[in-house]
Amino acid sequence: MFLKFSLRSVFYGAGGGNDIQWCFSQVKGAVDDDVAEADIISTVEFNHSGELLATGDKGGRVVIFQQEQENKIQSHSRGEYNVYSTFQSHEPEFDYLKSLEIEEKINKIRWLPQKNAAQFLLSTNDKTIKLWKISERDKRPEGYNLKEEDGRYRDPTTVTTLRVPVFRPMDLMVEASPRRIFANAHTYHINSISINSDYETYLSADDLRINLWHLEITDRSFNIVDIKPANMEELTEVITAAEFHPNSCNTFVYSSSKGTIRLCDMRASALCDRHSKLFEEPEDPSNRSFFSEIISSISDVKFSHSGRYMMTRDYLSVKIWDLNMENRPVETYQVHEYLRSKLCSLYENDCIFDKFECCWNGSDSVVMTGSYNNFFRMFDRNTKRDITLEASRENNKPRTVLKPRKVCASGKRKKDEISVDSLDFNKKILHTAWHPKENIIAVATTNNLYIFQDKVN
Amino acid sequence: AGGPGCYVCYWLVGDTQEKEGILPERAEEAKLKAKYPSLGQKPGGSDFLMKRLQKGQKYFDSGDYNMAKAKMKNKQLPSAGPDKNLVTGDHIPTPQDLPQRKSSLVTSKLAGGQVE
What we know:
The structure holds two protein chains of two kinds.
Chain A: H1 2-12, E1 22-28, E2 41-46, E3 52-57, E4 61-67, E5 81-88, E6 93-95, E7 100-102, E8 108-111, E9 119-124, E10 129-142, E11 166-182, E12 192-195, E13 201-205, E14 209-214, E15 217-226, E16 239-244, E17 251-256, E18 261-265, E19 277-279, H2 292-296, E20 300-303, E21 309-313, E22 317-322, E23 331-334, H3 343-348, E24 358-360, E25 366-370, E26 375-380, E27 386-390, E28 406-408, E29 417-419, E30 431-434, E31 440-444, E32 449-454
Parallel strand pairs in A: 28-29
Antiparallel strand pairs in A: 1-32, 2-3, 3-4, 4-5, 6-7, 8-9, 9-10, 10-11, 12-13, 13-14, 14-15, 16-17, 17-18, 18-19, 20-21, 21-22, 22-23, 24-25, 25-26, 26-27, 30-31, 31-32
Chain B: H1 3-13, H2 22-35, H3 46-54, H4 62-71
């Protein structure tokens, strides 16, 4: 792997932060600045082949894009993503018992691997998880004896001959239907869902509990983690994210608001309250401040494709952990360290609680996460180079190479740099996704979805 | 607020920290405590987390509302202040405090309009 990367460096030279030159490909969504709340994108996820890209929004809607087949003649770019299906996944509900509103916002979407012609995904809001089947229909039966083509019933007395109905081609129709509804298992707000490598079970995690489900069974789920204290006054931390290991179907991890990650083995006991491994970086007590715990809260945890590593995102950094070493991460990347001197105002405007996600590229060599001002960052684990790019309509000519951005922390601002005080903290990139096999990335701003590709020569 | 702010907080903190990374964070902490002197000592404490568990959910209990209305016939009902995340018992929400219920659900703009 290392040798291969060195050769690439020789051939392509250094291009910005890493060897890849990122180009604008597409942008989806409304142009206007006045963003309706329902249009706020809340999750982005490629399926296992990368052919489909799903988004969920605050209005409870899911939009799925499909990559068109590559045009062999025009080999300068890969296929574009066009709308494939869209449906209303969740609707606003009211919990009458507690007089609480249940938001329809889609918190997470996770795809099942494809087993047959249809595609399946899990989508969840705060309380209910749904399994959706997305299927194509490209033929329909014609030539019924008792029905006209428009569906009206024929008078049986007018039928003089019988014929066998046949399937005839029709315009492609993509239908989404809810196949399972997994409800009433979470008292607190669901933050994560993760499908097991056995492809039969999945977990759902809320602030205090994690449940294990079977995809076929909706009226029962098993509680596997419960960190709710007997006395809520003693509550000191909450679960922030959880994920199954990509290969070991008995292993999962969950992260906390205190910056710890616990790895659990379901073979050890039915209730995994006692972790098998605890990942925590020791903190220098002299560094401690009011903000320490808040900024250490982990907003996302993702296993590498290999299953050897996991990545966590806290407010200011991205950390890579080797599953074999619990006492500290093997790599730490600063996302926007210049914000450390702005923590007071970030606390006042609540930005300090923003939950950024992170993702791996297909070969686990580069990681990506979002920041403010519609900036997003990539860190190359091999070359140790990083790059800051911007998702903006200003660079929206296809195949235009994105210009790297730089934030000036203090003092003299160079040309083309942006000072920290000019950053727009309302423009946050919380959700990003990387195609499982190619260098295609999906980056969500507040209400737009950007697709970038590497330059294909 | 680069230089001067840092020096001020250097005095307030009162110790000789050498590491660069500490000064900005402690300076920010001092700023915050100066603005909000009553801020709790334990930011990770249960009040903070309880608010997180509720996630700013709005609620409306018609029973509470009507009883409060009956008790305070002649007085103005207290309206919600800037902080709408108060737990039960601290404040009776009124219908005006609640966000508008969503109207009919329309197709996402990601699925229509601009496709480049």
